[in-house]
Amino acid sequence: MHNSFVTVIRKDSPGNIPDSELKLGDIVLIHTGDFIPADLRLVESRALEVDEFDITGELLPVLKLLSSDDVFVWMGSRVVRGSGKGIVVALGEETVYGSILKQVMYKDPSTTHLPLSINHPENLLLLLPAFGLSFFQTDHKVAIILLYLVFFLLFAFFHMDGLLKSLLLEQERRIFEKKKILIRNVNSIPVLKKIDTICFDKTGVITTRHVELSKIYWTSTLTEIDARTVAGVSAIPALIIEAAALTTDISFFEKAEFADPIDFALVTFAKRAGFNINDISCRYERILDLPFDSEKRYMASGYATKDQQRMYFLKGEPSLVLQMCRYYYENEEEKRELDFNFRNRIRELSRSISQAGNTPIAMAVTKGDVAVNTNNFTFLCLAQFDNSLQEGAKEVVKAAILKGIRPILLTGDNADAALRIALESGISQNSTVSLSGKVIEKMDLNEVSRQIEYCSVFSRLLPAQKSMIIRQLQKRGHRVLMVGDGPNDGIALNTADIGVSFTRDSSPIARKYSSILLNHLRALPLLLEQPSIYWIGLKWVRCLKKIITVLAYAVAFFVTFYR
Predict the structure, then answer these.
(1) How many domains does the chain contain in total?
(2) Do residues 463 and 457 lie in contact, with contact meaning Cβ atoms separated by under 8 Å?
(3) Of 528, 514, 532, 519, which Cα lies nearest the Cα of 177?
(4) Are 127 and 144 in contact (CB under 8 A)?
């Protein structure tokens, strides 16, 4: 998962060693592209941004500032930008990622069957008196023996609970299989009808695994354009589309799979709008690459076209981009002086986008030979990026609620994003309360147990905290189904009464430690609404047991007294 060699400082001198030789207390240097080899407490951070998706499930890279409470980086995370220095505080199984693997290893939810032993064999003895009466009171002893042999076999069959349950479960498994629902552990089927709580991970479950450029605001009226529709795209000026394609890190097109999600969303949008990405190297010469960092909070890129026209683009935090702008576009051709009123409206709009759990990014452009650090740029637009709901997510949550099942959101993402998604999906109805992992750390288990009865949104959770919340729900008598897709969900999936993941677009750990695999979240209602062959079958088996017993005694009575 991580690099074979790491750079450490020992005896005040840096050197490269195999990651297997790391020790607690070692000082490790990390740079862009490195995988974190151990859990580190940062002592130095230079524009450090870390992709923690496998640990927390958070989609966007996390900025690590020593001035904040978040001064740890976790093994298995990847450095997206910047560099840093950290002290090793945990190794191997003792790391957060290692604990995920360790805690899920004790249980393998592979397909199992119940034993074939006879349940309550003493009940078979109940037929002996009836058999004795019939045998000694009739001359047709062979017929009586054959008749009671049939009774004994039927009675024994219907008391072989393991066999009957296995047959019923196998039949129900096949029904689910026809609906493209893979039951890895048949023993989870009887529990389905007892589920009263569903815990959802956010990214990859309720929402998609990528961010999307959803809206663009420009001109003095801050005209809102829907960037997700064909009609919206057609109304977007060519310069904005061009800026979307060109304001990326220089390594984007070489390593798109590791790209910043914002960059990926911009390029995806530009492609959809008709921009020919493959022609960039032919039409544009990159003459400037100023990477994003935590101090500037913006990035800059410069290009020279074939006719030697020079263009420079800015992309970053709206308030800082505004500081470098002197003009804004009133339309595709006309520029106006940027005044206080316009700046204030942009700031207010950016604030409202952030409070809704979305990401605002400003873009600006200038042409000619100018210095990037001047305030001669023209404000181009404010772009809104959403982590949108999965197709059918609202319907899935609604179906669960209609069945009397309580939905809960467990995520490593920030509180604003979690609340927005919870409200949008219907998990939280008109609630603005979220309980974060840092708050939970300071609470005792009794208080956590009380809070989970009222709170439906939990944010900034580490994997072990997701599992702890599920255990507290179980202690309060709830039957819990967990839906997750990432390695960070492994412990929670293992802890829940039923763990559910996906046959595609989920991590190997999530699949391995899930009892049930779905093709898509939309299949979840099928899982919950399927009439239970198992419970219906058991009901009929109980009836047949009684009927067979009554018939046996009826035959004995008839033969004895009416021969």
Answers:
(1) 4
(2) no
(3) 519
(4) no
pLDDT in tens, 425-460: 999 877 678 898 889 988 888 888 888 988 999 998
For residue 13, the surrounding DSSP H or E stretch is strand 13-18
Distances (CA, A) of 468 to 452, 494, 495, 515, 522: 11, 11, 9, 19, 27
Of 82, 1, 71, 81, the closest CA to residue 36 belongs to 1
Are 460 and 549 found together in one domain? no
Domain coverage including residue 173: 169-207+390-530
Judge whether 19 lies within some domain: yes
Residues 332 and 254 in one domain: yes
- The DSSP annotation for 254-278 comes to TSGGGS-HHHHHHHHHHHHTT--GG
Place of tokens 């400037």: 288
As a whole number of angstroms, the distance between CA 516 and CA 527 comes to 9
pLDDT in tens, 338-355: 888 999 999 999 988 887
Residue 15: CB atoms within 10 Å: 11
Task: For residue 61, give the amino acid letter.
Answer: P
Contacts of 558 (CB under 8 A, 6+ apart): none
Specify whether 86 is located in the same domain as 131.
no
Q: CATH no. for residue 334?
A: 3.40.1110.10
Together in a domain, 216 and 325: yes
Task: Quote the pLDDT of residue 109.
Answer: 47
539, pLDDT greater than 80 = no
